[in-house]
Amino acid sequence: MAPTLNTARLTLRSIRRADGPRIQLVFPRIEITEYLNASIPWPYPPGGAEQFLDFILPQIESGSRFVWAITLRDVSDDLLIGLIDLDVHGTFHRGFWLMPEHHQKGYMTEAVTAVNDFAFDVLKMPLMRLGNAVPNLGSRRIKEKSGAVLVDVIPDVPFVSGVFPEEVWELTAEAWRENRADFLASAIRLRK
Fold first, then answer.
1. What is the pLDDT at residue 47?
2. Which of 113, 134, 141, 146 has its C-alpha lying 20 to 30 A from 190's C-alpha?
3. Exposed, middle or buried by CB within 10 Å (0-12, 13-18, 19+), for 72?
4. Mean pLDDT of the chain, nearest integer
5. With helix as H, strand as E and coil as C, how does 9-28 read?
6. Which residues contact 170 (CB under 8 A, 6 or more apart)?
7. Domain boundary assignment for the chain
8. What confidence score (pLDDT) does residue 190 get?
9. Residue 191 has what pLDDT?
10. Which of 139, 148, 134, 137 is nearest to 180 (CA)?
11. Which long-range contacts (CB under 8 A, 24 or more apart) does 49-53 make?
């Protein structure tokens, strides 16, 4: 189970089976899924969230993966507005999505900060490998600001909205620590 992580405006709590209806409600939007891996069925089927939870919850229980629901701290409910995961043994270690109405507010920067700190300070990971479709500029900016280095581009990778080259990044613990303050400051600027 993922430990609860708090930021200035967010609570990242472990995903749970009760999140299924919310995921099923918000996830079938192309603006959320367009640059996610094509292994996600599209159009997103009825029951897709339950299938996702059936797949992911055993990985969480085994400790090989941490998946957090991103929730707002200043509201009485704890409905997720996105997800962020850390796959300790995966090809790519961190992935995320956020409902579009919450973009450009610095929320993902806060969530990534908390997860990177957990990965490097608690789990003592020496580096993270990260990937994104080339047209996914928001994801690219997160990586660049955090200190990740582009190490490869894989041609012709299938994503939900088509086939694109995929950028491969590496973020070391040292680079993260050097860039952390400026990275988090960028989220604070978006709050103003």
1. 96
2. 134
3. middle
4. 95
5. CEEEEECCHHHHHHHHHHCC
6. 127, 128, 129, 130, 148, 149, 151
7. 5-191
8. 66
9. 66
10. 148
11. 49/19, 49/20, 49/21, 49/23, 49/24, 50/20, 50/24, 52/23, 53/15, 53/17, 53/19, 53/20, 53/23
Domain with residues 5-191, CATH architecture: 3-Layer(aba) Sandwich (3.40)
Give the pair of three-digit tokens for residue 167.
Answer: 């950028």
pLDDT-derived band at 192 (thresholds 50, 70, 90) equals low
Q: How many residues does the chain have?
A: 192
* pTM greater than 0.90 (yes/no): yes
